Amino acid sequence: PLRLLQSKTVPKRLRTSQRKPHEPQVPRSLIKEIFRHFVKMPVTRDAFKIVEKCSERYFKQLSDDLEAYTHHAGRKTVEAADLEVLMRRQGLVTDKMPLNVLIERYLPLEYRKLLIPIAVSGNKVIPCK
């Protein structure tokens, strides 16, 4: 009689996922907002899909290049110097157009304060390294 009251154990099925791991992507709304800001005219859905695909490939290539520079330097962390080297190789940073000028020209003030060191009263430099 005791055996009838005990619950039976059912073997669990091994659930194997059929899906591939999902890579993080830049949000479509952000890409759309940035692209519309610079284009300043209506964009068809087909054109936007192409822009979205190109930006995805661009950021994938960008991250692969940064990873290669970091491994070449024998580090495991990407540093600002790696990004500057990459931007130099792309022709965005030159002797006439340093990185700080690009930061001042294209980023809002709150990001500029985080990226460019400035001296404040009390002989302090913000942000400190």
TrEMBL record:
Q: Which keywords has UniProt assigned to this entry?
A: Chromosome, Nucleus
A Gene Ontology BP annotation from the UniProt entry: mitotic cell cycle
Domain spans labelled CENP-T/Histone H4 histone fold = 22-118
Pfam families, sorted: CENP-T_C
**GO cellular component, as recorded:** kinetochore; nucleus
What family is this?
Belongs to the CENP-T/CNN1 family.
Put simply, this protein is called: CENPT protein
Q: What is the source species?
A: Pomatorhinus ruficollis
Q: Which gene encodes it?
A: Cenpt
